[in-house]
């Protein structure tokens, strides 16, 4: 029997890491870590081998090393747990794999791609040469347009040539702020490297994380939360090649933290900036409004009024000046183009259900919008029956709502799934922060025992 076990196929021996009983209770999270790293490794390897984008392939090579390390490390921890040993030091922590992703799959590829971008490959119709995704160039251009013309949107009917996709800026006016450093200080290789919009997105995302953790009084973030919000491939890839979605979802989480801690007006202001940068997150306003209303157990209409006033006033202050400069261009870029009604059709596509259904023909397009409507009705019913009473509940509802919208909308990209993933990770962190502390007497009894 020993011989037969020893000759078991390699795949069966590997499977035992997931199925065999262990001597400790630590095996379950370690099995999750191993499965997570294996799935991420597969994504990174496929991206490195088959992606049409240069930046994606560069990221894929770095990420393959990072997630490969995660597989080895989590496998080592799992084997140690099964044998009853507890590794000590840095390599004994589950956070080691997350640190590897942060360094090898986020920071290093971003540095390399920023330097590679200095060779001047922006705006070429050659995805295999792009060191930054088009949204980076477009946002930097929008900042320059805002400085010189008072609007980040060009009149695509007055270009003197047929418009193309990259003539559009399908974002709200606030998104141009991330390109202002490049517009103001760029022009040399050194300043261009330091003012790449991706640094601005990364700094904004990090600042939002720190601000949120401070508002939550520095909770002990679960490893699973960090895996979903930070170490998953969509977050790491977005960080290296683009970045705006991370800044937006970071601001959204910060707005939720402000609402959950009783800062209704500040929450409305930050949420207005979020919606004024990317309209896709607008449904979150309904969730946070309910959170502000019911957070204290009753109906706090005064807090809701402060939230709504800040949201509306800030949104108007941001949009109105830009709209008045060129109303037609504003509508064309912000609304018509994303909806597929512009002079140029949005190329947004993905293997997600909504797009696949819509591609079957006119009936499929109608069916896709019917599904979006049904999802919206279901979300409204959920919110009415069980309004969110704390930050974690609000984040869960926003994650589910945005996830459904992204999956079912005909014109979308799979990269947008970074929103629900980050929000679910934040949900887990908020849930830890919301657990009430044990009374002093109970803490003393626990300590003495």
From TrEMBL:
Keyword Ribosomal protein recorded: no
Keyword Manganese: no
Subcellular location: Cell membrane
Keyword annotations from UniProtKB, A to Z: Cell membrane, Membrane, Transferase, Transmembrane, Transmembrane helix
Membrane topology (UniProt): Multi-pass membrane protein
Major subcellular location class: membrane
UniProt xrefs under InterPro entries: GT87 (IPR018584)
Listed transmembrane segments: 32-50, 56-79, 91-115, 199-216, 228-260, 266-294, 301-324, 363-384, 391-408
Pfam family, one: GT87
Family affiliation: Belongs to the glycosyltransferase 87 family.
Entry protein name: Glycosyltransferase 87 family protein
Organism: Amycolatopsis plumensis
């Amino acid at each position: 029997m020993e011989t037969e076990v020893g000759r078991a196929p390699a795949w069966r021996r590997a499977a035992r890491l997931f199925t065999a009983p262990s001597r400790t209770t630590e095996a379950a999270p370690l099995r999750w870590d191993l499965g997570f790293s294996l799935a991420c490794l597969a994504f990174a390897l496929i991206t490195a081998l088959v992606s049409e984008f240069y930046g994606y392939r560069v990221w894929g090579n770095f990420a393959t090393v990072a997630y490969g390390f995660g597989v080895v490390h989590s496998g080592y921890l799992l084997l140690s747990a099964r044998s009853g040993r507890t590794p000590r030091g840095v390599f004994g922590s589950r956070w080691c794999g997350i640190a590897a992703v942060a360094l090898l799959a986020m920071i290093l590829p971003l540095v390399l791609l920023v330097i590679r971008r200095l060779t001047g490959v922006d705006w070429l119709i050659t995805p295999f040469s792009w060191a930054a995704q088009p949204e980076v160039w477009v946002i930097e251009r929008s900042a320059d347009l805002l400085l010189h013309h008072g609007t980040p949107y060009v009149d695509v009917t007055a270009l003197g040539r047929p418009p193309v996709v990259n003539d559009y800026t399908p974002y709200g006016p606030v998104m141009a702020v991330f390109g202002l450093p490049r517009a103001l200080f760029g022009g040399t290789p050194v300043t261009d490297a330091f003012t790449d919009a991706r640094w601005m997105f990364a700094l904004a995302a990090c600042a939002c994380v720190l601000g949120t953790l401070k508002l939550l009084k520095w909770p002990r973030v679960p490893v699973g939360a960090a895996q979903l919000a930070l170490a998953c491939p969509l977050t790491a890839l977005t960080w290296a090649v683009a970045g705006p979605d991370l800044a937006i979802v970071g601001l959204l989480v910060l707005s939720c933290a402000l609402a959950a801690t009783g800062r209704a007006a500040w929450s409305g202001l930050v949420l207005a900036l979020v919606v004024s940068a990317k309209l896709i997150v607008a449904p979150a306003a309904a969730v946070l409004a309910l959170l502000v209303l019911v957070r204290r157990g009753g109906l706090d209409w005064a807090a809701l009024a402060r939230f709504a006033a800040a949201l509306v006033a800030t949104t108007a202050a941001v949009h109105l000046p830009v709209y008045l400069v060129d109303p037609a261009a504003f509508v064309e870029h912000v609304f018509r183009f994303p909806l597929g009604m512009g002079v140029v059709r949005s190329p947004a596509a993905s293997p997600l259900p909504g797009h696949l259904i819509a591609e079957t023909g006119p009936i499929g397009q109608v069916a896709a919008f019917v599904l979006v409507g049904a999802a919206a009705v279901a979300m409204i019913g959920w919110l009415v029956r069980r309004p969110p009473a704390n930050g974690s509940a609000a984040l869960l509802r926003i994650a589910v709502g945005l996830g459904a919208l992204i999956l079912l909308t005909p014109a979308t990209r799979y990269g947008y799934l970074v929103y629900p993933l980050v929000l679910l990770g934040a949900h887990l962190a908020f849930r830890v922060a919301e657990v009430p502390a044990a009374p002093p007497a109970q803490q003393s009894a626990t300590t003495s025992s």
